[in-house]
């Protein structure tokens, strides 16, 4: 269920499940942070470029946005929801929660 913010807070196991079913993953961290590893299949759109790249984000499948801890990605989800996107998911705890859950990180291709 989506909250009043217009997006859903999700945990790493949920992200792994919907990613395997074709969800779109977006990493909004900085270049330096992304160089340390990403969730496999994610695309990198730095937070400050999100308004310019919003048209590139699909509206017909779930979109998971993540950052280091979940704060910047929550801002990104709220922004996208304000633009009419109703398919936004924020990875609660960010990539730190993802890694703590034992999930692998990949290098951005």
TrEMBL record:
What SUPFAM superfamilies would the database entry show? Rhodanese/Cell cycle control phosphatase
Keywords assigned = Transferase
Lineage at the top is: Bacteria, Pseudomonadati, Pseudomonadota, Betaproteobacteria, Nitrosomonadales
Query: InterPro entries under this entry?
Result: GlpE_sulfurtransferase (IPR050229), Rhodanese-like_dom (IPR001763), Rhodanese-like_dom_sf (IPR036873)
**Gene3D superfamilies per the record?**
Rhodanese-like domain
Question: Any keyword Transferase?
Answer: yes
Give the source's domain of life in one word: Bacteria
Which Pfam families does the protein's record reference?
Answer: Rhodanese
Instruction: Tell me the protein's name.
Output: Sulfurtransferase
Which organism was this protein described from? Thiobacillus denitrificans
- Quote one Gene Ontology molecular function term: transferase activity
Keyword Methyltransferase (UniProt): no
Chain ranges of the Rhodanese domain: 19-107
